[in-house]
Specification:
Blueprint (H helix, E strand, L loop, with lengths): L29 H16 L8 H8 L3 H18 L1 H10 L1 H18 L3 H30 L5 H29 L2 H5 L3 H11 L14 H9 L8 H30 L4 H27 L5 H20 L5 H26 L3 H33 L3 H17 L9 H4 L5
Helix pairs in contact: 1-7, 1-9, 2-7, 2-11, 2-12, 3-6, 3-11, 3-15, 4-5, 4-6, 5-6, 5-9, 6-14, 6-15, 7-12, 7-14, 11-12, 11-14, 11-15, 11-16, 12-14, 13-14, 13-16, 14-15, 15-16
Length: 422
C-alpha cells in the first residue's frame, strides 16, 4: 500500500517498463521470471516481521505500557513520515534498485534491534523507513512487471508472504525469549532480512530506461491531471488505508495484553497473536485476488470492514472463551484490508506515475493517522480500566471508514476504459 478515472493498464500501455519495452515486463524468460517472483516473495516476507514481534514479547519481556506504545507508534509514524522517500527512490533509482536499497536498510535495522532498548527503538525506526519505501514501490513494481490480470494475484502473494513471515516469527519469539532473552528473540528477524537482500540482488541487472514522455506516450490523462491532493479519490483512498492501518497496528500492539488481562496465559496469548497473523495471510491473499477481478471494489471494502468489526465484537463479548476464533476472524479482515489497498492504487491509477502518487499520499497520511491508534487505545484503557472503550472506538472507526472509502472502490468510467472489466 494509489484524477479521476479508473483503469488497469492494457497491453498497449506505453508506460515504460524497466527493460525499456512495454511488453518486456510481461514476457520474461522463465529463469528471469522465477527470480523475479522469488525476490518478490523474499522481500514480502519481511514487510511486517519486525513489527509483529512486539505484541507477543511485551508480556514476556516485562515491558511497560510506555515502551509498548512507543514501539507500536514508531513503525506507523516513520512509515508515514518517510513514505515520500518511495517516490524519490523511484525517480532516482527505479523500482528494482529502490527496493534493493530498501532491503539493505532493512538488514541494518534488524541488526540494531537486539542491542538493548535504545537499539530496539533505533532499529525499529530504520526498519520502518525501509518498509515505507517498499510499501510505495510494490504496487508500482507489480503493475510494471506483471500482466494486468496478475495484479490481484501478486498483491495476494505479497500479503500472504508478509503474513506467513510474521506468523512464524511471532510464534517463535515468546518461547525463544523465555529460553534465552528478548534480544535473542528479536534477532530472529535478521535471517529473513538477509534473504530479502539476496532475493532482490538479481533485479539489479534489469536495465532501467526512463524515456521522456511525449503527448503520444503520456496521453491526456497525464498532461491534464490535477495534483492528487486535490482529488476526492486520493482522500478516499487515504481514509480507507489510514483507518484499516490504525486498526491493524493497534490490534498488533495490544491483543496479547488484552488476552492476558482477560485471563489467558502469556503463551496462549502469543499463540493467538500467531493465529491473528496467519489470518492476515489468508485474508491478504484471498481479498486482492477476488477484488482485482472486478471493476467495482466497493463490496470488498464493505466486506473487510464488516469482518474486522465482527472480530473486534467477539473480543469485546468473549475475549477468553473464543480468542483463537476472534483472532482468526480479525486477522482475515485486517489482512484483506491491508492487501486491498494495493489493488485500489493499481486499479484507480491511470499510469505508473499516478499509482505512485496515490500510493505515496495514502500511505503518508494514512500511516500518520495509524500512528495515533496504539497511544489512544492505551489512553482509553488507562482512563476506563478496561478494553471496552478501545474496542468500541475501533468498531466506530471501521463504520466511518466504510462510508469515507466508497469513492476509492469504484469509478464510473472503468468499463469504458478497462477491457478486462467488460
Amino acid at each position: 500500500m494509489p484524477p479521476t478515472t479508473a483503469t488497469v493498464t492494457p497491453p498497449s500501455d506505453p508506460s515504460p517498463s524497466p527493460t525499456g519495452s512495454p511488453a518486456a515486463a510481461r514476457h520474461t524468460a522463465p529463469a528471469a521470471g522465477a527470480l523475479l517472483v522469488l525476490g518478490f516473495v523474499l522481500l514480502s516476507l519481511n514487510s511486517r516481521v519486525a513489527f509483529g514481534q512486539v505484541g507477543p514479547l511485551a508480556p514476556v519481556a516485562g515491558w511497560g505500557p510506555g515502551t509498548v506504545t512507543v514501539l507500536a507508534l514508531l513503525p506507523a509514524l516513520c512509515m508515514g513520515l518517510f513514505a515520500p522517500l518511495g517516490g524519490l527512490a523511484r525517480r532516482r533509482l527505479g523500482e528494482e534498485r529502490g527496493l534493493f536499497h530498501a532491503s539493505v536498510l532493512l538488514v541494518v535495522g534488524t541488526l540494531l534491534r537486539p542491542l538493548g532498548l535504545p537499539g530496539l527503538y533505533a532499529g525499529t525506526a530504520l526498519v520502518a523507513v525501509a518498509v515505507a519505501v517498499v510499501n510505495v514501490l510494490i504496487p508500482v513494481w507489480v503493475r510494471a512487471r506483471f500482466a494486468p490480470r496478475r495484479i490481484g494475484t501478486m498483491m495476494g502473494v505479497y500479503a500472504l508472504s508478509m503474513g506467513v513471515g510474521s506468523a512464524v516469527v511471532a510464534a517463535l519469539v515468546a518461547p525463544v525469549a523465555q529460553a534465552w532473552s528478548w534480544p535473542a528473540a528479536i534477532a530472529l528477524a535478521i535471517l529473513p532480512a538477509v534473504l530479502a537482500v539476496a532475493g532482490m540482488a538479481p533485479q539489479l541487472r534489469v536495465e532501467r530506461r526512463m524515456p521522456v514522455p511525449t503527448a503520444a506516450t503520456a496521453g491526456p490523462a497525464a498532461t491534464a491531471r490535477r495534483p492528487v491532493g486535490r482529488t476526492a479519490l486520493a482522500w478516499s483512498l487515504t481514509a480507507f488505508f489510514g483507518i484499516q492501518t490504525l486498526v491493524f497496528y493497534t490490534t498488533l500492539a495490544w491483543l496479547p495484553t488484552l488476552l492476558v488481562d482477560a485471563g489467558l496465559s502469556r503463551t496462549a496469548a502469543g499463540t493467538d497473536q500467531a493465529v491473528l497473523i496467519l489470518g492476515l495471510a489468508v485474508g491478504g491473499f484471498l481479498v486482492p485476488v477476488l477484488a482485482a477481478a472486478r471493476s467495482d471494489q466497493r463490496p470488498h471494502i464493505l466486506a473487510v470492514a464488516a469482518v474486522c468489526a465482527l472480530g473486534l465484537t467477539g473480543l469485546l463479548l468473549a475475549p477468553a472463551g473464543g480468542a483463537p476464533v476472534w483472532a482468526a476472524v480479525l486477522g482475515i479482515g485486517m489482512g484483506g484490508g491491508q492487501a486491498l489497498a494495493g489493488v485500489l492504487y493499481a486499479r484507480r491509477g491511470t499510469d505508473q506515475d499516478h499509482v505512485a502518487a496515490l500510493s505515496t499520499m495514502a500511505q503518508t497520511w494514512g500511516y500518520l493517522l495509524a500512528a495515533t491508534g496504539p497511544a489512544l487505545a492505551s489512553a482509553l484503557h488507562a482512563a476506563t480500566g478496561s478494553w471496552t472503550a478501545p474496542l468500541l472506538a475501533l468498531i466506530g472507526l471501521l463504520l466511518a471508514g466504510s462510508v469515507l472509502s466508497m469513492r476509492a472502490g469504484h469509478d464510473a468510467t472503468a468499463r469504458r476504459r478497462d477491457p478486462s472489466a467488460r
